[in-house]
Amino acid sequence: MVAPSRARRPGAPRAAVQDAADDPAGCPFDEGRETATPPETFAIGPPGRPPDTPGWRVRVVPNKFPAFGPWPRDGDRSDTLLARRAAVGRQEVVVHSPRHVRTIADLGVRELELVAEAWQARAEAARESGFLYVHALVNEGAGAGASLPHTHSQLVWLEEVPPLVAQEHELLKAAGSCVLCDVLEEERSQRMRVVEERDGIILLCPFAGRQPYEMLAAPLDCEDDPFTSRQLASALTLVAEGVRRLRVNEGPVSLNIWLHAGGHWHLEILPRLGVLAGVELGAGYFVNTMAPESAAGVLRES
What we know:
There is one protein chain. The protein is of the alpha+beta class. The protein contains 6 helices and 10 strands; from the N terminus they run βββαββααβββαββαα. The chain has helices at residues 109-128, 163-175, 179-190, 232-250, 278-283, 292-300; strands at 42-44, 58-62, 89-95, 133-140, 152-158, 194-198, 201-204, 215-219, 255-260, 266-271. It has a 10-stranded antiparallel sheet, with helices on both faces. A hairpin with a 2-residue loop joins β6 (194-198) and β7. The protein starts with 41 loop residues before the first strand and ends with a helix.
């Protein structure tokens, strides 16, 4: 539901922006503090660089506090209504830059290309290890779940396609054609929700956005695998541009970014400018206090 008047109600809640407090002197992701993280699993740097030493451009390390991991399966139960199983998987952290950069919006094009290269290399490793799906995500700001301000992403290796992505795949099968292709064609004809189109990637504010300034980035050509696509770097670059434009208008907003692979792959950007309350959580109706057409217009001008 699009209800701009809700934003003007007295005491309207607003999600927190990124934390202003920062301590670069203690950041474990900065170059030169490699021993503050678990040993790296992958890095992009000069030839011959020893692991866990300075000189890297992008660095991947295991998540110290994973939700998914190599847990034992001896507690699995599926013979009752209250079934349970181990959350088997793997979680890695991709440190985007040796510089102490706080947002993906401040990364350069070459840095974003290297992030895409790291995602693709680790996705290949996941598949070789028998994991069916890799969920790539970026959390920025405490209000979006980030515990460290240094820009980074996470890669979650999963044994099966996660529920929301599986739902998208089922919708695709039911439609008999690519729903996202149809949506992009319609959006390009109307133009009112399109923010930018560049290098075969489109960035827009979805027609049914859940939050103010929600964005979606997708390749115009229907591709099902971002981890083998040459356009992943271009998509990340356009996502970073959208976040930069958002910050121009709203400041350092907490936000989540995630990649949906399979079907017609795409990236979703969800700023945390509102608070999910009883209507959203209990009824499944998302109340957006800014029309997506208005949001796209603001971002186009930024």
